[in-house]
Write a structure and sequence with these properties.
The complex is a heterodimer of chains A (84) and B (578).
Chain A (H helix, E strand, L loop, with lengths): L1 H31 L1 H4 L3 E2 L2 E2 H36 L2
Antiparallel strand pairs in A: 1-2
Helix pairs in contact in A: 1-3
Chain B lengths: L2 H23 L5 H6 L6 H12 L2 H14 L4 H25 L4 H9 L2 H33 L4 H51 L4 H4 L12 H11 L13 H17 L1 H6 L6 H19 L2 H16 L14 H9 L2 E3 L19 E4 L3 H9 L4 H39 L5 H24 L8 H22 L5 H23 L27 H19 L4 H10 L12
Antiparallel strand pairs in B: 1-2
Classes of the chains: A mainly alpha (84), B mainly alpha (578).
């Protein structure tokens, strides 16, 4: 029983980390902080505009793969301890 | 027959032949094949199929046009329609796959141990899916009538026969493999013109980089700066900072689209086709890779189309195009009524400005931007022909996914689950096929006679999914004690609030004149537009569910054990409907 709670808790921790990043990049950089960020530039892009129309999407892809990778490790760790 | 038309016929009917061949090869022989493609789809295959399932006529045809005219404000669609996959991958898909059933309402039934909950879920699903499918059917009819100059109704009928053939014959299995083919057609049709145009304008063939590059005309000015300058000179808001109805509305709109995406049943169902919870997580990742190929190109398509349109009408600052010298594509689109010119000052030139009193481009429909884009940029005919096949692939693949969601919710949840539990597998399969045939006919009829509220339907579909399905599913996994009564109360109040808000501002069932608060910013709740209200409905849903839970007591022990099981590692058992 102890082990199962831990697998779930570790999962919740990972989800929390991912969703904080998800929020900061899209809603934070892309929307709420867009004006100050637009003072900086990335080539022809204003930085805030870039986050809203490009950067946030790349971040979402990265987040899902990182989460999948971490969860696969977690699965192995707990499945082998269960002996199943 | 001219060259363009010949190419268009070849690309459209060539792709149809491929879909038929795949459907014949992948026909379904069991309910497991029919509902979840036997559960043996690999994550990469599933990712492509989700991409095609998800990217509809709206993504392919309308989105870049919306961005072209909204500028920075169009970001809500880009972030909203991709960010939902992060939520799906982490909060819903793996656990629902681990639970291992055929349909979303079936999951709701098991988790909330209530036939009422299952029926509420079926109703939400059918409402959301039917409203969505009308748009796809219209897209099919429009693509046929504009590119092949076939009658709208006939075009619609051809589309119905094609989708009926492979969806009814193949079920989820046939749909999955055709969606993979449709994804490939769609992505080539979208990116090839974009590569050409990006190269023409900036010298950089990669549209994502071209959008951030300098113009190739030797001026050294960045494309986006040029666009900002051109549009502000004509009195429009600056392209890169125009934020529609303000930041709060954009925030709510983006969030509503994200949780609406995560709550749409036809997308969630696709995650039941993979062999394990692990594969469900990675297929969300691959799906988003395939989706972002189109979604990161769309802002470039939008901005470049706007710039090309502007520089066609106003070749040099202050010098407007003579109406008599307008290019061929301008004449073609005038015929469709989607582009209208009115010579207000009678000088024979086309003045285009933000001021309604002097603007002579009376109508520029969003939808023409992607379709007319290759012609505006003078691209070769085979590229233009490809766009027609791509638009049809986008509409047909989404329609098929929606049809399957509707038919499985009726044959599996309503018939087998509630009304006639003794239905044999063979008869359930037959029922599924009959229901799907009926659904094709109903959606074809609705596409031919779009109800008055068709324009508002996609917003309504997302609002419904966001305010009903997403909170119910999430609480079912993340709150062990959440009870059936509380969840039903939450779903009903979430949907209720959202529909009330949409109807009070847009009219009951979108009938003009029945809105009782008026569709204007001053009456909006905290300035949130009706399209963006799904997130408020979702919050109401969560709130009501937790309050009711306090008064009615927690879910029984065996349901809590079921939730515990979803949260365990593993999840490689086969999907079943029992």
């Amino acid at each position: 029983m102890e082990k199962k709670t831990t697998y779930w808790q570790e999962n919740l921790r990972l989800i929390a980390i991912c969703l904080v990043i998800w929020f900061i990049i899209s809603f934070g950089f892309g929307l709420l902080l867009v004006e100050p960020l637009n003072e900086f530039r990335l080539g022809g892009y204003k930085l805030g505009f870039w986050f809203a129309q490009q950067g946030s999407i790349y971040t979402f892809v990265g987040l899902i793969f990182w989460y999948s990778h971490k969860m696969n490790k977690l699965d192995k760790k707990y499945e082998s301890e269960d002996g199943s | 027959m001219d060259e363009l038309k010949l190419y268009t016929y070849i690309s459209v009917f060539g792709t149809f032949a491929i879909y038929f061949a795949i459907a014949w090869w992948a026909r379904a022989s069991s309910t497991s094949d029919f509902y979840v493609a036997g559960g043996g789809i690999t994550p990469i295959q599933n990712g492509m199929a989700i991409g095609a399932d998800w990217m509809s006529a709206a993504s392919f045809i309308s989105m870049a046009g919306l961005i072209a005219f909204l500028g920075y404000g169009g970001s809500v669609f880009l972030m909203g329609w991709t960010g939902g996959y992060v939520l799906l991958a982490m909060l819903l898909a793996p656990y629902m796959r681990k639970h291992g059933k055929f349909t979303v309402p079936e999951f709701i039934f098991d988790r909330y141990y209530s036939k009422t909950a299952r029926i509420v879920a079926v109703v939400c699903l059918i409402l959301a899916s039917l409203t969505y499918i009308i748009g796809q059917m219209k897209g099919v009819g429009v693509a046929f009538s504009r590119f092949l100059e076939v009658d709208y109704g006939l075009g619609l009928a051809i589309g119905m026969v094609v989708v009926w053939f492979y969806a009814v014959l193949g079920g989820m299995k046939g749909i999955t493999y055709t969606q993979i083919a449709q994804y490939v057609v769609m992505i080539f049709a979208y990116t090839i013109p974009a590569v050409f145009i990006s190269f023409q304008l900036t010298g950089n063939p990669i549209p994502q980089l071209g959008l951030g590059s300098t113009l190739a005309d030797g001026s050294g000015v960045f494309l986006l700066d040029k666009l900002d300058q051109v549009v502000t000179e004509l009195g429009f808001k600056e392209y890169t900072t125009d934020n529609m109805n303000g930041s709060l509305d954009m925030f709510a709109y983006t969030m509503s689209l994200m949780i609406g995406t995560a709550g749409l049943p036809h997308v969630i169902m696709r995650f039941f086709t993979v062999p394990s919870a692990k594969a469900a997580r990675s297929s969300a990742g691959y799906a988003l890779v395939f989706i972002s190929l189109l979604y990161t190109v769309a802002p470039a398509v939008g901005a470049m189309a706007r710039l090309n349109l502007m520089s066609t009408i106003e070749p040099t600052a202050g010098q407007y195009l003579e109406y008599s010298e307008r290019p061929q594509w301008f004449k073609d689109w005038e015929k469709t009524g989607l582009l209208e010119f009115e010579d207000k000052n009678g000088d024979g030139k086309i003045q285009y400005s933000a001021d309604k009193a002097t603007n002579e481009m009376v109508k520029v429909d969003n939808d023409i931007m992607v379709l007319a884009n290759p012609a505006i940029a003078n691209l070769p005919n085979w590229v233009i022909a490809l766009v027609a096949a791509g638009g049809l692939a986008a509409a047909l693949s989404t329609a098929a996914g929606l049809l399957l969601a509707i038919s499985s919710s009726i044959s599996h949840d309503l018939m087998k689950g509630v009304l006639t539990p003794n239905l044999s597998e063979k008869n359930e399969l037959l029922t599924g096929r009959i229901v799907m045939t009926l659904a094709v006919l109903v959606s074809g009829y609705l596409g031919l006679n779009p109800p008055g509220f068709a324009a508002g339907t996609v917003a309504l579909a997302f609002g419904l999914a966001a305010s009903s399905m997403f909170p119910a599913l999430m609480m079912g996994i993340f709150s062990k004690t959440m009870s059936g009564t509380a969840a039903i109360a939450g779903m009903c109040s979430g949907i209720g609030v959202t529909m009330l808000y949409v109807f009070q501002h847009k009219g009951i069932m979108f009938i003009p004149g029945t809105d009782f608060l008026g569709d204007m910013g001053a009456n909006w709740f905290f300035g949130i537009s009706p399209n963006a209200f799904g997130v408020v409905g979702a919050l109401v849903n969560f709130g009501v569910a937790f309050v009711v839970l306090q008064f009615t007591g927690p879910a029984p022990k065996h349901v809590q054990d079921l939730v515990d099981n979803m949260r365990k590692p593993g999840g490689t058992s086969a999907v079943s409907g029992h």
